[in-house]
Design brief:
Elements lengths: L8 E5 H6 L1 H11 L6 H5 L2 H8 L7 H4 L1 E2 H4 L18 E2 L9 H5 L4 E5 L2 H16 L6 H10 L4 H6 L1 H11 L6 H6 L2
Parallel strand pairs: 1-4, 2-3
Pfam family, one: Sulfotransfer_1
Protein name: Sulfotransferase
Keywords: Transferase
Length: 183
Amino acid sequence: MSMEKPLNILFMSYEELKEDSVAQTKRLAEFLGFPFSMEEEKTGVVNQIIDFCSFNSVNPHQLISHFEIKFYKENLNPDLSKIPSLRLFSTHLSYPILAGSIKRSNCRIVYITRNPFDVVVSLWHFIRGVHNLPDWPLEDCFEMFCRGEESYEELKEDPMSQTKRLPKFLGFPFSMEEEKTGV
């Protein structure tokens, strides 16, 4: 893994966040350059932030836009400089496949890893939600994931063919009209 600017990257796991939310929230705030003061810690600000951002209070997708959905679904070449600062994005891309320009930039990257089983479930929901495909059994998604039938390298090498594979596999291939209009 290339880390041109290692001080701009904070690695943590989802499991660490669940296990000790207070310590990880403080670690994140310090990394972003906004450490909590003693007064804030004593008055419970850290716990208030954790409560506000918990799954019980809000869906995280309402707080942070998915990079590939919000910006690239409607425009393959969005002008991100027009988005007001401070910019905060979420992505399903893993660190190794982020563009070199992102890794070399001065942006801060918080990289949260997850248990592979959680990744499969998230991928399943993500694919079903973005592409509005017919119901796809989780078991089928899991089997494809474990067999490595859909790899990023294949998708990057031939995005058009690979994008057609899933609907075809599900028995709902794109029509010629859908292919022509770029569905």
